[in-house]
Amino acid sequence: MLSERLRAAILTGVIVSCFLFFWHLATMVPDFDPTGLSEDDLMLMEFNGDIVRDDAGRYIYNPDKMQGIPGPGPVAKKAVGELSEAFHKKGTNDHGVAHLVSYTVMRFGAGFFAASIVAILLGVAIGLSPLLFGALNPLIQLLKPISPLAWMPLLLYSVQDPQWTAILVVFMAALWPIVANTSFGVNNIRPDYLRVSALLELGRFERLYRVVLPGAAPAIVAGLRIAFGSALVAVVPAEMLLGELGIGYLTWIEWNNLDISGVVFAILVVGVVGITLDALFNQVSRAVTYPE
Fold it and tell me: Could you tell me which residues come within 8 angstroms of residue 18 by beta carbon, excluding any fewer than 6 positions away?
């Protein structure tokens, strides 16, 4: 009897295979039919680059001039080419995909870590003080729906540095979900926990460290998870708009080159980076949470 996990993995493989099959069918290049064309017509088409000869000497449509979404074959060929030079640096803006991924992860990590520290401290303060909650909650509700990319012009004007602007965009994307969840978690700690800490006469910081933060940990981790996805979504378009080297830059430069296979490859790289970071985050979250 196959386990649930193995059956899910098999089903995933089947879905991916079906997707690749139908993707291939939908993007297949039709065979060139020379019926009704004279030798002069064929020579003119070959001269214009519309058709080329294959290894067998037959005319086929020129793949480089075909329009539309490329199939899995050209994307795989592009991926092999990019990954074979993943660590190269051929110039100021010509870095391999491994370097581009590292730049994106660095910006994401710096912005997300800074936002986590600030937001958890702010959320704890709001959660412990009804007065502060009443004063700041309207402002948080006002700022929370604003897209982090909307802040980018102001941030770029303020710090005058694209690198720091991208980090601050990640910071803004991660801040509010963590603040909201942390304050909710602190505000809903079981009263028994607080009564026990009062009976033990714990100091303010000891109560924060031993009771408040562990008691609110599930809600804080849930906020970190929401913020994690928001920050990861924000960093790629920020790099695209700022022109900073990274995965977003790779996507945009491939589009400027009208290399659609490169765009699809860059999108896949974003997905792989996202699922890898999410797996690492899951390991960290398991270490700091506990069953009720």
Answer: none
Amino acid identity at 88: H
Tens of pLDDT along 62-96? 776 666 788 888 888 888 888 888 888 877 778 88
Token pair in block for residue 218 = 């599930």
Count Cα atoms within 13 angstroms, Cβ side, for 146.
Answer: 14
CB 195 within 8 A of CB 255: no
Q: Identify the DSSP state of 50.
A: S
- What is the distance between the alpha carbons of residues 202 and 214, in angstroms, rounded to a whole number? 15
State residue 20 phi and psi, 5-degree precision: -65, -40
**Burial (Cβ within 10 Å: 0-12, 13-18, ≥19) of residue 145:** exposed
219-251 pLDDT per residue, tens = 888 888 888 888 888 888 888 888 788 888 888
